[in-house]
Amino acid sequence: MLHSHLTTLNAVSLVLNAFKADGLSSEALLAGSGISAADLNRADTRITTNQEMQVCANAVALKRDIGLELGRRMHVSSYGMLGYALLTSATFGDALRLAMRYPALLGTLFELGLEDDGERIWFVAADYRENPALAVFNAEFCLVSLKTICDDLLGHSLPLLAARFEHAAPDYEATYAEHFNCPLHFKARDNAFAFDKSWLDQPLPLADVITHQAMAERCRKQNSEFTGRQAWLGRIRQLLRAQLNAAPGLEGLAEQMNCSARTLRRHLKDLGCSYQELLDELRFEQAKLLLREDQMPIYQIAEALGFSETASFRHAFVRWSGVAPSQFRPHR
To answer: Which residue intervals define the domain HTH araC/xylS-type in the entry (predicted)?
Structure first.
């Protein structure tokens, strides 16, 4: 699990609530994510998108079409300040353009855009670069949640003209009709749904200039916080990645970051991780790359990753992946 972008607990809470009626414990859904029950009780908790995706992977393992259901539950109010900024926008088009300005606050793993083909506007979600195993789930979750946002903004269902998906039609394709009342196309170049372009100029029923200006400014500040933390975390990852064969330790890394060990520890805790977790994640990432090349002996991989003994590397890799390095390595 590699740390990437920061996000809120909104989607995680949604997953837990979706399975609550089935009596499934939160521990089973949070397994492997590093998110604790205490984190769920803090409104200001920030997690990484990969922590969020681990929870989603646990959910998909239990119910393959859960992405569609979660998207239906992701109302505009789930996005906090951004949601209120969208609701108080002057027009539907203004709200959509504002949402695309702050993808970190929207929590999307896609590049969003509005594509004009003359008569229709396509709300596009493209350029997915995360876990391929969750590509279908994320496409379903993203498009249905965007449609839910649109409906909430207008106060009624947005009439769709068509919808398209990058993935092949799943065996539960019939369920799509409950969420997209329009012609569906699979194996497309991206994920998108289309509506008449006249809707962009539609005034929103909850538009309010004063509230909108206040919420938009708070969104700008929160986005700066998210992106600033991401840049800081990126620098830490860059430093550690270059020193995997001789990791500097928390104190050494703090010195390289020009801060105290105490400050570094606190910042990492705020980001939902620790020094050792980051080091393990980067070692795991590099180990998988080296093992896939199938050239370097395992003992040399262990040395390159800073392990004094090959056995220690083997134990660590089993803990990270569930299999031994020799089993992970492709056979000739």
So the answer is: 234-331
CA quadruple 44, 14, 67, 69: dihedral, nearest 10? -150
Question: Helix 249-256 crosses helix 275-293 at what angle (to 10 degrees)?
Answer: 90
List residues bridging with 7 in a β-sheet: 47
Is 242 exposed, middle or buried (CB count within 10 Å of its CB: 0-12, 13-18, 19+)? Answer: exposed
Could you say which of 3.30.1490.190, 1.10.10.60, 1.10.10.10, 3.40.50.460 is the CATH number of the domain covering 243-328? 1.10.10.60
Is the CB of residue 271 less than 8 Å from the CB of residue 3?
yes
Q: Of 81, 86, 121, nearest to 100 (Cα)?
A: 86
DSSP code, position 159: P
Name residue 176's amino acid: Y
Q: Using one digit for the tens of pLDDT, what is the confidence trace for 70-125?
A: 999 999 998 889 999 999 999 999 999 999 998 878 888 899 999 999 989 999 99
DSSP lists the bridge partners of residue 47 as 7
Provide the mean pLDDT of the chain. Answer: 89
Domain boundaries, the chain: 6-210, 243-328
Residues 6 or more apart whose Cβ sits within 8 Å of residue 251? 261
**Mean pLDDT in residue range 258-275:** 83
Yes or no: say if 39 and 27 are a contact pair by the CB < 8 Å rule. Answer: no
Q: Output the CATH code of domain 6-210.
A: 3.90.1520
Tokens (6 digits) for 130: 């995360």
pTM: 0.70
Cα distance between residue 199 and residue 155, in whole Å: 13
